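Annual report, structural modelling task.

Input specification for the flavin-adenine dinucleotide complex:
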Amino acid sequence: MTPHNPLPRFSGKALAAAYLLTALIPLLLARLTSAAPMDAWEYAAAAMGVIALWGMAVQFVTSGRFEAVSGQLGIDKIMAFHKFAASWLALALVLHPLAYVFPTWLDNPDLGWIRLRFYLTDPAYRTGVIALSSVLVMIISSILRDWLPWPYEAWRLAHLLLGALAVLAGLHHAWAVGRFSADGALAWFWGATALGVITVIGVLYGWRWWLLHRRPWRLAAIRQRAERMWELDIQPAPGTPAMDYFAGQFVWMTEGKRRFPLFDHPFSIADSPQRPGLSLLIKEAGDFTNQIGHLPEGRVIGIDGPYGEFTTQAHPAQAYLLFGGGVGIAPLLGIIRDMVARGETRPVRLAYAVGQPANFACLEELRAAANSLDLKLWLMSEDPPLEADMTLGRLSREHLSSMLEGLDPAHSKALLCGPGPMVVAVSDMLLDLGMPMQNVVYERFDYAGGASSRQDRARSRNILGIGVALTAAVAGFALSF
Ligand SMILES: Cc1cc2nc3c(=O)[nH]c(=O)nc-3n(C[C@H](O)[C@H](O)[C@H](O)COP(=O)(O)OP(=O)(O)OC[C@H]3O[C@@H](n4cnc5c(N)ncnc54)[C@H](O)[C@@H]3O)c2cc1C
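The model returned the following structure:
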């Protein structure tokens, strides 16, 4: 099946501009609404409340589950944005009551504290306090997620419920006591926002749940490919349409009776769209993946996808450098299988790094691909015993230089997928070797922070720029009266 790209792609700058412009809509509506005169701090407080409420609603579509959004920049960048945006909207929420009392506090600190206590305890403001508390609990539980004794699914459910509670309580607060939101155009805007959030939750957990049951897939075969690593051949059940995807994308997968979006897990498609069905390469990593190897053939599988832009089609180039660490080989295996199926002629260099040789998956197939494509392999293992074409140790600058030999870094693209430290090290070394930053693309299998590459830091600075622009919008609003 020849996949088509259904989505127009926008640059990060265009998406940032769209984010900022939509943030200005509620502020503009507030500016057009008449309210009792206040001082500049109170106007700023109101603007922060408006921006925070709008930002909380937008978090639902930047959660990585909407391909129309995450497919634009890749899951890595969207999740980085989602986390950053959470911190500035939490800051705006915390500052919202403080800015209201600040002028009083400057005049008379005791009266300032009394006013703040009133805002935090008076029943009229309770839904605002609920919204603020929900966001703070969400952020703290996300930072501590790896240390919390909860299964990932419990954290995810809590995250969803707290997010919905924060937005709904925030909307009630705006309608009940908001200086600009009680009636008029902004009140209607919040009505549309509430509808939007309810629709998003309905699509995510209602429509997708229905699709997972209406369009089941089946586990056709399962094979062990490396130590604690399994390859699943999944085929559409009769009546389920084939999936239109690009090699390198990923799907959300569930199985058996647990076919509900809350229980699904992301896995890269280690396959070519030229072949019917999907192949997933899964490494045992926890509750769900540890029982993958015991799934019986014929088991009903739920597939939601495709997602992501970790593909050669989204990143056209004259040549490709592929870097896979451990099970990070999965999307690259899909890309190579697709190149073999399509008879790719562009040069490809693949570095595949593992802890020990028993962790290499599908080696014979990769070696065979090297005979049919313009593909050179670098097989790296940190431990012996090595075979003739393997190298001991980690990828170094020298390995990367030799991979780049004969290629033009400006017209080549590097696709990296693997553990955080490997992605960071290789990405930075490629920049040192003259590769432009936009030519280095990576996808991490874990959203949790960890070390950051130069590209991560550049991305953080850009995202911070959005926060600064929002701060300027709040200040502009406050000073415009
Ligand atoms: C875009 C993407 C593609 C991936 N592709 C592959 C692949 O091809 N092969 C492979 O083996 N692994 C892949 N992963 C990782 C895989 O999703 C996790 O290893 C798996 O979900 C772990 O679930 P668990 O219950 O077994 O382990 P747990 O112990 O529950 O989780 C281990 C860690 O995995 C992450 N995780 C767990 N559940 C989810 C979830 N539902 N959504 C997002 N992250 C979760 C969390 O960071 C968690 O700390 C991919 C991850 C992402 C984000």
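The pocket of flavin-adenine dinucleotide is lined by residues 75, 146, 152, 250, 265-268, 281-283, 285-289, 327, 330, 443, 445-446, 448 (CB under 6 Å).
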